[in-house]
Specification:
The complex is a heterodimer of chains A (about 120) and B (about 110). Chain A has about 120 residues and is mostly beta strands. Chain A contains no helices and eleven strands. Chain B has about 110 residues and is an all-beta fold. Classes of the chains: A mainly beta (about 120), B mainly beta (about 110). The interface of A and B includes residues 106, 108 and 110 of A.
Chain lengths: ~120, ~110
Amino acid sequence: EVKLLESGGGLVQPGGSMRLSCAASGFTFTDFYMNWIRQPAGKAPEWLGFIRNKANGYTTEYNPSVKGRFTISRDNTQNMLYLQMNTLRAEDTATYYCARGDWEAIDYWGQGVMVTVSS
Amino acid sequence: DIQMTQSPASLSASLEEIVTITCQASQDIGNWLAWYQQKPGKSPQLLIYGATSLADGVPSRFSGSRSGTQYSLKISRLQVEDIGIYYCLQAYSAPYTFGAGTKLELK
């Protein structure tokens, strides 16, 4: 069974940093692209970026809306995905999801973790 | 960025009714279109990928179609468990973009 479990969310002050983690299990982690997607309360999801699979060199793509502030990485020995978020703003407040997949299908999402940016 | 214009924003329908939701892409995205259902407090669940392929475990009353740059999700006979918010997602080119969502309610 595919499982994705996010952690690391909470309250952070504007300008601060936070790192989210996503523990993956139930599939061969290195075979898959992994995504971060966020969703502000009551709004549509927003794709933040992905990190490619082993066959594609684990390279990354980002949404311009977060490029330069957010960094996606993975630890393939631990089946972990990370999102490093810097210079956080109030508009970054959202539920953050990790999700498996690429252009063919983003098929499994985690349950999400809340991030609140507020003083 | 590719814009996905989703309609309607909200929809009220009766049990067993046929429901159709559409997404219009601002440019050609081929078949790289997925549909998701989201229930309150839950993460989105994949229904359709590749514009027309049914995801594993999804009831056959859900179907997807494409006409040019317009994509449709059809529920052939609405059931109580189909209530929620539906989103389309284009994965043709980064940044991937979602439609604004359709809130489906029971009449």
